Amino acid sequence: MITKILIAEDHESANISVQKTLEELGITDIAYAYYCDDALNRIIQAVKAGSSFDLLITDLSFEPDGHKQTLANGMELITAARKEQPDLNVLVFSAENRPTVIEQLYNNYEIDGFVRKARNDARELKEAIHEIGRHRRYFPRHISQLIDKKNTYSFSDVDITIIQLLAQGTLQKDIPVYLQRKGITPSGLSSIEKKLNHMKSVLGFTKNEQLVAYCKDIGAI
Amino acid sequence: MITKILIAEDHESANISVQKTLEELGITDIAYAYYCDDALNRIIQAVKAGSSFDLLITDLSFEPDGHKQTLANGMELITAARKEQPDLNVLVFSAENRPTVIEQLYNNYEIDGFVRKARNDARELKEAIHEIGRHRRYFPRHISQLIDKKNTYSFSDVDITIIQLLAQGTLQKDIPVYLQRKGITPSGLSSIEKKLNHMKSVLGFTKNEQLVAYCKDIGAI
DNA sequence: TACCAGATTACGGTTTTCCGTAAAAAATGG
DNA sequence: CCATTTTTTACGGAAAACCGTAATCTGGTA
């Protein structure tokens, strides 16, 4: 059963509406934070006091506003929080809608639920909390639809290096010298062309710009 | 004095938080709509009944969800609403942060206030409503900061469209037909080259891949 | 109407990328 | 060691992007 919840959300209005939604569920033990660092501190304090949180509801993007923060975003908060309290349930509440990013949250960050800020988000929040309370992960239908058609490619280090160079403005024909300088083989221009062609064909792309966009999406570069 | 307010906002959670914020201001006569068309109908009905709204609080982007809508977004709603009730006060509540778009809202759509969905948005909403109640326009400080921010280039809608097409794999030479199909001018290949060159030179880039990476980073695409 | 200034488009030459083929080098196996 | 296969590199023609210049269109003005 979920009774004690921490909300990490920098937008005041979103924070308010989550609180209100929780109250409608009869949950009264609510703490909230506008900064990731603040959220992590509350988790640490609660663990120390022996009254840890049952659930963390967090956004992904936190806008910098001058205050120095060690945690830059929700994903870093999740990692840090789980280090302090491994059994903490995590529900992500975000406007993110890129399937690859959401998939990463479930697979790498092992979150327990994701609710997208969208039309019926308040209702979905209630459903999600209900499910998580029954020790089930909440996986919205529209997400699984998106993720099912996944054509994922696992990039090698050299692949990433090449795409990074492109994203930095390096001409394709100049990449060989960069690779040679780092002692990376193969470094021939033809090999680079071949690697790029292979990546693009696997992912169904035709242009380098698509590769750059895709790698940005999944956080590979 | 503002006593009767209509909220047009498709996100349930955002809608809730605006309602709550208004209640804290002692405003009880609140109507809300999840669709632009619905919002316009309520305005029409209220005018007919001789009990028109004092203020419309509206989002800009409304996500399509199958229901056929004649009004596609908040800007169309504003235009249509003012046609029915020219003296209607309008407050835009949106995540939009492109200075040029916000400027347009003030200049072309003659809105009375803009509050960006961000850290202190609930407090700003209260301030905005207070100001508008005193027949003053509300122009948040951070907007002017954005407008005279250097280093960052403010992308126009066409700029974004072009970069999106590139990131989708469209050949540069094929972009003109896409723009023509959408009725966007200029659509000549030379104009597109010129726009891309301008963006790149302002940002210190040399390749389109850099533009795509940059726009992904700042969330412009 | 005629004219001008700015915006838009068309054009041509150069550079870069794309892509198929083939030579060279390296790894594999007996 | 040689023979075979795989990987890497080199080469060349075609397509696309790049870039400067010139022609055309447009809206405003006298």
Task: For this entry, give a set of tags.
homodimer; 221 residues; alpha/beta; Rossmann fold; 5-stranded parallel sheet; DNA-binding
Give an overview of the whole structure:
The first copy, chain A, is α/β, with parallel strands linked by helices and 221 residues long. Chain A folds into 2 domains: 145 residues, 3-Layer(aba) Sandwich (Rossmann fold), CATH 3.40.50; 61 residues. Chain A has a 5-stranded parallel β-sheet with strand order 2-1-3-4-5, sandwiched between helices.
How would you sum up this structure in a few lines?
Chain A has 2 domains: 4-148, Response regulator (Rossmann fold), CATH 3.40.50.2300; 157-217. Chain A has helices spanning 12-24, 36-48, 74-84, 99-107, 121-133, 141-148, 157-167, 175-181, 189-203, 208-217; strands at 4-8, 29-33, 55-58, 89-94, 113-116.
- How is the largest sheet of chain A built, in terms of strand order? 2-1-3-4-5
Evaluate the radius of gyration of chain A. Answer: 21 Å
Class of the largest domain in chain A, according to the CATH hierarchy? Answer: Alpha Beta
Taken from the alpha-carbon principal axes, the silhouette of chain A is elongated
Helix content, binned percent of chain A: 40-55%
Order of helices and strands of chain A: EHEHEHEHEHHHHHH
CATH fold assignment of the largest domain in chain A: Rossmann fold
